[in-house]
Amino acid sequence: MMSLSRLMSRAPAPVFPAIGPGRQADVERLLSRSGLRAAATPRDAAILLVAGDIPGTAAAPLARVHDQIPRPRVTVSWGHDEPDAIAARIAEAWREVCAGGEGEGDRLPDEPPNKWKGVGPNGQGGKGMMGGVPYGRPMAMTGPDIRDGLQLDRYTARFGPFAPMLPPGLVLEVTLQGDVICDVTVETQPFAQPADADAPDLCAARMLRLLGLAGPADRATAGKKPRGVWMRGAVPGGLGSVDGAGDARDRLSRWLSGTPVTASVPDIPALLKGAEWSEAMLILASLPPSAILRACQTPEAA
Amino acid sequence: MLTFGIILGWAVLSVLFALAVLPKAHATAPQAMPFLGGGTPDTHAWQRFHFRPYTMSLLFVAFEMEMMFMYPWAVVFVEEGIKALAEMGMFLTILSVGILYGWREGIFRWE
Description:
Chain A is 31% helix and 16% strand. By secondary structure, chain A is α/β, with parallel strands linked by helices. Chain A folds into 2 domains: 2-98, Rossmann fold (3-Layer(aba) Sandwich), CATH 3.40.50; 150-302, no CATH class. In chain A, helix 1 packs antiparallel against helix 4 (83-98), helix 5 runs antiparallel to helix 6 and helix 5 (200-210) packs across helix 7 (248-256). In chain A, 41% of the residues are buried. By secondary structure, chain B is mostly helical. Chain B has a domain at 54-105. The N and C termini of chain B lie far apart (59 Å). Chain A binds chain B through residues 18, 41-43, 58, 60-62, 64-65, 67-68, 70-71, 106, 108-113, 129, 133-142, 145, 147-148, 150, 152-153, 155-166, 171, 177-180, and chain B through 25, 28-52, 111.
């Protein structure tokens, strides 16, 4: 058993980053190091990396993300230390987790958000298929599909501020039917990031990571050639066209050749409405973070 | 007796295996929530959505069944000759009309 945990601690440490204002580029460069692995979800992680000062409005979401990391878990806060020092602290925390440490307890109470109730004696039943409140949440109600008007369930949820596919801090309230986005509103604008978050290599790496090309993404962040075969072909043509900055594929090509992209995005919701989820995330990743922040800051035209 | 023993042995082994891989950790309420990057959902995640390849998969199943009919037909064809070929030709023609109808209705369009 002892040797098994030692073998495990030699694997890259799975880190889920909660990125605060101004720390996006630092965290992305840190997680492209060889001993660390950016986990796609908290379930895949053992270490929560909290970078920078998380504003009070994001404290509750941070607690939810913290509790979704399976036990044993460790939180590492990154204030103003050097990246090397943080990498060493993460490695130490990972060894501790692998050795079977107790880890941290939950921050939120172990209670469903509402009582599981329906008309039946066991909490079951209600109107049609929409009965009851299973696991404390009501069932989705139907609405017309935006493509062909078929009556289907609409799922509304807030994504962010620590969703790895969105810019840090951005909270979108999205209404989905299956994977089609019916409605989007910007709840909270992304955290301000310094200009180095717009660096071409980081922007290209974000898109490559979404496309499942983690290896080329890490190599791009480390300043090497990404060494992928026809990577721009993985992005569908004509996706997320913006005046003066081409479509998502053009922007990826420019970033891969080391050219920064400046885009002025008119309206984020208009860009995402009607797209499938995967397309919408690719569109957001294909815009520089500063452009998304500017689009969220300008008051939306009614 | 030996057969009975093997069946019983396998049953016991599979139950033991199931018990061994049974999840031990109890998922807390925050962990049972879908991961939304710290966000919250309004409703339960169980929902009915538009399964886009549905019509295409129905068409696939229809032609899969047609291929299954062709195996016994191959035996009959050896005995009956040209008559069986004509019968199968009629059957395939009717099915192909179905494809043309579906095509006109737009079932091959991804939307």
